[in-house]
Amino acid sequence: MTGIERLHKNERILDSHGRTVSYLRLSVTDRCNLRCAYCFSKDIRFIDHQSILRYEELLTIVDLAKELGIRKVRLTGGEPFVRKDFLWLVEHILARHPELDLRITTNATLLAGKVRTLKELGVTHLNVSLDTLDPRKFVDITGRDFFRQVRSALDEVMAEGIKLKVNAVAMRGVNDDELPAFLALARDNPLDMRFIEFMPMGDDDLWSDMRYWPASDILRQAEELAELVPVQSFDGGPDADRGPARVYSIKGGKGRLGLISPLSDHFCGTCNRLRITPDGKLRTCLFSDREYRLLPMLRHPNLGPEAVLRAMRLASTRKPLGYKLLAARAKGHSVAGKRMSAIGG
Asked: Which residues are involved in binding [4Fe-4S] cluster 1 (predicted)?
């Protein structure tokens, strides 16, 4: 029996605020093939290859997460599909843990042609980041002319019956004029169209009060365009396995509208997630720059998985309340010291 097997299996973690950890966001790379204005800067430095978690190490992290009672794992980036043999990782995670709720967040530029394989491997949910439905504006935002590839991939996902969420960073003066088109996309297709409040991350110099489009304004404007019915709330208790979005069905439509409001109306009371960066650092809160360095332990001959498991358990019990960290930051300062692609979404 291994050291890991001697530990309590599926022992769920309850933090000091009564929240249960059940969800891990695991970033496989900080690299991306897009150059989104709010994420990418000219002086950006990517993590060197030797400092990135190897696939075998990512598999070990998932094994340990299962030991801690985590039931849902999301693979993120950067853009996960730019990493060579990414589908190998997906296949081996689900081969080891077929009961795991494994999801992927992608910009979908490299997704077309891979959707059926993902379904055959057991992937049932995909999140696609897409900030505009205008091909010309897509180039302006991302620096790349890949809109047709993304739109084709969305059609493939829906045709294969994989549950689809489309995530747009809500930016006034950038995509607020497209709210009718985004709602039409959700009305006409079986997907969740979700708006995420724009947050200043790392050294981002695009964010400003003028660009901030709060969820309350989005909801008010959306209600003028469609009849919305709330279908999800935050009253499910600390053990609820749900995401942070407030979700609304669209009367007469196939899809739904979702709003994620980390700045204007936090969901810290029900936060159930951990994040692990591409270089193996554990973050227990998006808004906390405190990180626990797991990679050196994984590679240390006298430490290894048992030490990592203990560190993950201890760190998880100390999860802070993010809204308190935000309140303590000076107005206009970034909500985190790193850019989102380096954290893992």
From this structure: 32, 36, 39
